[in-house]
Amino acid sequence: MTNFGYRLCSLLTIVAAIVGAAALCSASPATAQDTRRPADAKRGAVIAAQGTASAPACALCHAFDGASDGSGAFPRIAAQSADYLSQQLRAYGSGLRANAIMAPIARALSPQDIADVASYYASLQTPFPPLADANPDLVKRGKQLAETGNSRKGIPGCDDCHGAEGAGRPPMLPYLAGQYASDIALQLRMWKRGFRTDNPETMVLFAKELDDGEIAAVAAYYQQVRSASQLAGAQ
Fold first, then answer.
1. What residues does 195 pair with on adjacent strands?
2. Is residue 189 predicted with pLDDT exceeding 70?
3. How far apart are CA 219 and CA 183, in angstroms?
4. Within 10 A of 5 (CB to CB), how many other CB atoms are there?
5. Which of 170, 72, 187, 57 is nearest to 122 (CA)?
6. What's the CATH number of domain 136-234, 2.60.40.10, 1.10.760.10, 2.115.10.20, 1.10.10.10?
7. Are 81 and 172 a contacting pair, CB within 8 Å?
8. In sequence order, what are the beta bridge partners of 169?
9. Distance of CA 19 to the CA centre of its chain
């Protein structure tokens, strides 16, 4: 990672802590992290499979194994960190992250439900399904953006924050390697066009500088890239 990348990620860690704390302080009791016992992945598996009295089963969209349905319509959540998954659910519940489907579901989950289901999905090591390969030139362009960014536009490499080959930087920066290209592209376009306003100091800022071709390229690259550790875990 470049020195700039290290400085950036250090700054992002501080910013994420401040933003996360502010979001939790302003959240309602139903969305704030206030669990009375350690997270229970076994109970989380029941929520994932069956839902709760007021929330549908997570598996309906994300599958019980967290790989979703293979179409790319829903993001892969298997093995994302429990802290990251919990943070996102609380953001949906508090309105920090807007989503017509996820917001009412997250609001219907108790803090303990969130902790348990996040722990369950974080515990999974689900194989990556075979996905169609993108145009090699598109993947090559995406690899360059992921590794070194675009200095002319002031965009750092995505790997500077999301880890080498998009492996993630737990607990708060998600992995991108193996994520569906359609979901990566959708999230980048939402940040670019102002439909997602969370992470304004980072993703909103950088996504606005990406053109549609760059978005397609980096999304295609991350869909097909696998780190050695991920491959080992998927076998």
1. none
2. yes
3. 8
4. 16
5. 170
6. 1.10.760.10
7. yes
8. 173
9. 17
120-155 pLDDT tens trace: 999 999 998 778 888 999 999 999 999 999 999 999
pLDDT for res 32: 44
Burial class (CB in 10 A: 0-12, 13-18, 19+), 68: buried
Question: pTM of the full predicted structure?
Answer: 0.82
pLDDT tens, 2-49?
Answer: 444 434 444 444 344 333 433 433 343 344 445 579 999 999 999 999
Q: Tokens in use for 165?
A: 């080959």
How many Å apart are CA 108 and CA 127, to the nearest integer? 30
Which of the listed CATH numbers 3.40.190.10, 1.20.140.10, 1.10.760.10, 1.10.238.20 matches domain 31-122? Answer: 1.10.760.10
Pick from 158, 165, 170, 166: nearest CA to 80: 170
DSSP state of 150: B
Which tens digit of pLDDT belongs to each residue from 80-97? Answer: 999 999 999 999 999 999
Would you say how long the chain is, in residues? 235
Nearest one of 165, 152, 163, 162 to 187, comparing CA atoms: 162
CATH 1.10.760.10 spans which residues of the chain? 31-122, 136-234
